[in-house]
Specification:
This protein has strands spanning about 1-5, 35-40, 45-50, 60-65, 70-75, 80-85, 90-95, 100-110, 120-125, 130-135, 140-145, 150-155, 160-165, 170-180, 180-190, 195-200, 205-210, 215-220, 225-230, 235-240, 240-245, 250-260, 260-270, 275-280, 285-290. By secondary structure, it is mainly beta.
Length: about 290
């Protein structure tokens, strides 16, 4: 998913680095079976990467940073890895499960784009790859977790927006600009090849892939969200928001809203149509683990 609240693309040079960071904070009493990750804004403006139960309880702090923007993309549970951005860096965090909580053991910087702007990146639901977009030349890169290698996947003709993996991790969907605030959704296999259009176009700024089938959640510039069923069909209007993430069973979507300069987290039950509040302040960019 697109790791920013707005479609502000970064303009920076591509670089690859491998920086290990040992240790990491642990929140006493945190859950040992987390379901979501998110970012907390502290009173001084700094950020914390946290994981917790689905209702926000039992949170463990896995990384603390300064005021740089931070966004999160969760890998599969058994892998104990999370992709996140911190300022201009896309990073891969590895943690271990202790008897009472979680503890960070390593943080590797996959790319430093030398910017304070936002990034578009995503962690494959299989845990095999991390993808990100270099906005300077509209190139999409793939990092192979097993081989620790980065390679270009595709360079587009026009500005590239949000990128997200399909549920099987075999293809990457991305938004390519046609004109200002007008994007077309395309897909390309992770093995390379020519991208194909998926039949969705408009002022779309984010896309989220379903976990169990080919449904999509589309987010527009005005923060309208809608669910597109597998194979097309009638679109279902969701509550307004952005940064959506579908639970592993596709029954619940967690998302954020902006209000009066602040942020809040909410969950929407797709079966009951009920919205509940995860947090009404200081938390943003939620992401479910891709697997149950």
């Amino acid at each position: 998913m697109y790791k920013t609240a707005m479609l502000a693309l970064i303009a920076a040079s591509f670089a690859t680095a491998a920086v290990a960071q040992k240790g990491g904070k642990t929140q006493p009493g945190g859950t040992t079976n987390p379901e979501v990750g998110f970012v907390r804004i502290l009173s001084n403006g700094s950020r914390e990467l946290r994981v917790s139960a689905e209702d926000g309880t039992g949170a463990s702090v896995l990384h603390s940073a300064g005021r740089a923007q931070m966004f999160v993309s969760m890998g599969p549970r058994p892998q104990h890895q999370i992709a996140f951005s911190e300022g201009g860096k896309v990073r891969l965090l590895t943690y271990e499960v202790t008897s009472t909580s979680l503890k960070t053991t390593n943080i590797q910087t996959l790319v430093d784009m030398n910017t304070s702007g936002s990034q578009s990146f995503d962690f494959s639901p299989t845990g095999a790859h991390v993808a990100w977009i270099n906005p300077r030349d509209y190139t999409i890169y793939l990092y192979n977790v097993a081989s620790n290698q980065t390679s270009p996947l595709l360079t587009t003709q026009n500005r590239t927006g949000d990128a997200t993996f399909t549920k099987d991790g075999e293809s990457l969907m991305f938004l390519e600009e046609v004109s200002e605030s007008d994007y077309v959704l395309k897909s390309v296999p992770i093995t390379g090849g020519s991208p194909v259009e998926l039949g969705y176009r408009g002022n779309i700024m984010q896309v989220e892939a379903g976990r169990t089938d080919d449904r999509l959640v589309l987010v527009y510039y005005d923060h309208t969200m809608e669910m597109v069923p597998a194979g097309g069909g009638t679109r279902v209007r969701l509550p307004n928001g952005y940064a959506p993430s579908l639970r592993c069973d596709d029954r619940v979507v967690i998302f954020q809203r902006a209000y009066n300069g602040g942020v809040s987290l909410h969950k929407y039950d797709l079966q009951t149509g009920l919205t509940s509040t995860f947090s009404n302040k200081d938390l943003y960019w939620p992401d479910y683990y891709p697997d149950c």
